Amino acid sequence: MSEPLLEARNLRVEFDAGRGLFRRKRFAAVEDLSFELRAGETVGLVGESGSGKSSLARALLKLLPAARGQVLWSGEDLTALSGAALRMRRRDMQIVFQDAPSSLDPRMQIGDILAEPLKIFEASAGARERAARVARMLERVGLSPRMTNRYPHEFSGGQCQRIGIARAMMSNPKLLICDEAVSSLDVSIQGQIVNLLQDLQRETGMAMLFISHNLAVVRQISRRVLVMYRGRLVEAAARDALFAAPLHPYTRALIAAVLSPDEAPARIAAEPIDDEPRSSRALAGCAFRSRCAYAAPVCGERPPRLEAAAEEHLVSCHRHAELAAVNTPPT
Ligand SMILES: Nc1ncnc2c1ncn2[C@@H]1O[C@H](COP(=O)(O)OP(=O)(O)OP(=O)(O)O)[C@@H](O)[C@H]1O
Ligand code: SF4
Ligand SMILES: [Mg+2]
């Protein structure tokens, strides 16, 4: 297989948690997270609010520092890059955020907003070429080239998101990260933007990391899906395998919450947990334990490790084999 386009190795992202008794405390928004993304691949990233998806996205682009671990771009360690070298790398890796209107400078005409990446990354392009490429890109994202002189406030939320996508596409990125890019839009507009992203992805062959709360959208767009819980990767699998036979109890809960009861994966009986006192030992166990219907004593003793349950199917749960058995339909 070819070398991954992007690879995270044991990545940790920290934030300040305020002052403790003696010193400032830090906490990990992303912890020991590893994954690969191949050229042209669309990978979905799901997890509840606060699970660390945006922190991961920003660390991948080096918009946030990695406290530990590495980010490799085509094998090159991004964590070691800075200055001009990093700026040039950024041309290949773009991001589209949730709140499109506020990510566009209200004082700039959209023609200038779209021309800016060209000024940075292709300084040799003249004003006329820039204008032509801006016009082509506007058309490509479904806006009229006649709109170049308008300001962001003259556009709807969906149109602003098209402008944000156009701006990201101006440098022909090899990777587009969409961080909740459709989440604040009406459902019908969401569908249009997802279609646009899929078209752009097919035309350009770029890879996409698609972050969303919305499992239906992730299911539509992704070839592979990553599931995060409290900063860690708890499951990663091909899309169909993940939706048909999720192995991690958290993934099962996420999917069960959006599927109708007869579509949802089978439930297995919960094992009662001994009523042990809260001790430091309990903290060493699985982070999902207090919410898990399947928690067993071992889950409080040591944290599960991410391991291969099947080809291209990673899961971090002590009981994944039992859960898989229950999911497999009888032959
Ligand atoms: N700049 C920051 N300073 C301190 N803590 C932060 C900062 N950004 C995020 N966090 C914390 O890090 C954790 C992960 O946040 P993050 O925004 O990455 O999650 P998320 O999965 O993107 O959530 P959402 O789905 O709501 O966008 C949360 O506990 C959050 O409060
Ligand atoms: S390791 Fe235990 S507590 Fe954690 S998800 Fe698996 S069964 Fe639940
Ligand atoms: Mg986020």
Based on secondary structure, the structural category is alpha/beta
How far apart are the termini? Answer: 33 Å
Instruction: Compute the average pLDDT.
Output: 89
What's the total helix number?
13
What is the CA-atom radius of gyration, in angstroms? Answer: 22 Å
Quaternary structure: single chain
Strand content: 15-25%
Helix content: 25-40%
Q: What is the tally of beta strands?
A: 12
List ligands, each type once.
adenosine-5'-triphosphate, iron/sulfur cluster, magnesium ion
Overall description:
The structure is a single chain. The chain is of the alpha/beta class and 331 residues long. It has a domain at 245-327. Helix content is 35%, strand content 23%. The strands form 2 sheets. The chain has an 8-stranded mixed beta sheet with strand order 6-7-8-3-9-10-12-11, sandwiched between helices. A hairpin with a 2-residue loop joins strand 9 (224-229) and strand 10 (232-238). Helix 4 crosses helix 5 (127-140). It is globular. Bound molecules: adenosine-5'-triphosphate, iron/sulfur cluster and magnesium ion. Adenosine-5'-triphosphate binds next to helix 1. Residues 248-249, 286, 288-289, 292, 294-296, 299, 304, 317-319 line the site of iron/sulfur cluster (SF4).
Q: What would the keywords be for this entry?
A:
globular; four-stranded antiparallel β-sheet; alpha/beta; eight-stranded mixed β-sheet; binds iron/sulfur cluster; 331 residues; single chain; 23% strand; binds magnesium ion; 12 strands
